Structures are given as C-alpha cells and as structure tokens.
Amino acid sequence: MGRGDQQPATPPPQAPPQAPPQAPPEAPPQAPPEAPPQAPPEVPEDPLAGLSEEERAQAEELAQQLAEAREKIAGTPASVVVGNHAMGLYELGAIHLSQQPPNLDEARLAIDALAAVVIELEGRLGEHEVTLKDALHQIRMAFVQVSRAFEAPSEE
Fold first, then answer.
1. What are the pLDDT digits (tens) for 13-48?
2. Could you tell me the sign of the dihedral formed by the alpha carbons of 146, 151, 155, 156, in that order?
3. Domain layout of the chain by residue ranges
4. Tally of CB atoms within 10 A around 128
5. What is the model's pTM?
6. Residue 140 above 60 pLDDT?
7. How many Å apart are CA 62 and CA 56, to the nearest integer?
8. What pLDDT digit, counting tens, does each position of 77-118 carry?
9. CA of 40: how far to CAs of 35, 37, 43, in Å?
10. How does DSSP assign 43-65, residue by residue?
11. Who contacts 124 (Cβ-Cβ below 8 Å, separation ≥6)?
C-alpha cells in the first residue's frame, strides 16, 4: 500500500460490556430498638392509710352512701334533675332579692340562668315545665318590684 492508499481505520477499542447496575447489598435486618425499661405500674396508695379503724369505717360508709346516691340519680329522669336545679336557681335569685340591700346583680344572674334553662329546654322539661315557667315569671316580677323600690328615691 502506498501513501495514497488508505487503510481502513480501525475502530477504537471498545470498553468491555458493563454489567447492569446492581442494587446495593441489603443490610442485614436489624432488631427493633429496645424500649427503655419501664417501671412497673404504680399502685395507688391507700387513700384511707393513716386513718384509725373508726375513721376508716366512717369513710367507707360515706363512700357507700355516695355510691347509692349516684345510683339513685342515674335512675332518675334528667328532666327531673334539671327541674330541681332550675328551682335552685329560682331560690338563689329570691335569696339575693331578699338581702338588705338587695343584691340585684347576683339576683339578675340567677334569674337569667333560670330563664336560659326554661326557655332553651322548652318542651323537654317534663311534667313540671308549667311550674318552672310560672316560677320564672314570678321571680322576674319580684325583681322588677324590688329594683324599682331600691332605686326609687326615698320620700321624707
């Protein structure tokens, strides 16, 4: 071959074929982290510890009476319990109105609370609903009378 003759170019050397990428080796499974040691559950102290036998007997009797009262309340319709509390608000308002001088702000709060119960629970207060409405009307009228008398200038 002469100078003018050209040899076919040799292809550049090829890199050896690469293997497909491999996933990194899996780490060996690890045990879950250990929880810190826990103290055994605390046993509540005896609330009656330190009491004499007589005091312990009295406390246990009171606890029994309380449990019986709770059971009785649980068996009473809520309308009756709410009605009783509403009458307590009536009495509270009357007590504040009867003070000398009358405590009008406290009476107003009790009367407003009674009104909230009676008005918001209308139709749900059971057989004593009419009585509660009458009580609300009476205590409101008493409030107006007492507040007018208290605020009126005394005539001499």
1. 555 555 555 555 565 566 666 766 676 677 668 888
2. positive
3. 77-151
4. 16
5. 0.62
6. yes
7. 10
8. 999 999 999 999 999 999 999 999 999 999 999 999 999 999
9. 14, 9, 9
10. PPP-TTTT--HHHHHHHHHHHHH
11. 79
* Exposure b/e, 43-80, CB count within 10 A at least 16 = b: eeeeeeeeeeeeeeeeeeeeeeeeeeeeeeeeeeeeee
Amino acid sitting at position 25: P
Give DSSP secondary structure letters for the chain.
--SS--PPPPPPPPPPPPPPPPPPPPPPPPPPPPPPP-PPPPPPP-TTTT--HHHHHHHHHHHHHHHHHHHHHHTS-HHHHHHHHHHHHHHHHHHHHHSSS--HHHHHHHHHHHHHHHHHTTT-SGGGHHHHHHHHHHHHHHHHHHHHHHHSPPP-
Tell me, what's the pLDDT at 130? 97
Q: Can you give the C-alpha Rg of the chain in angstroms?
A: 44
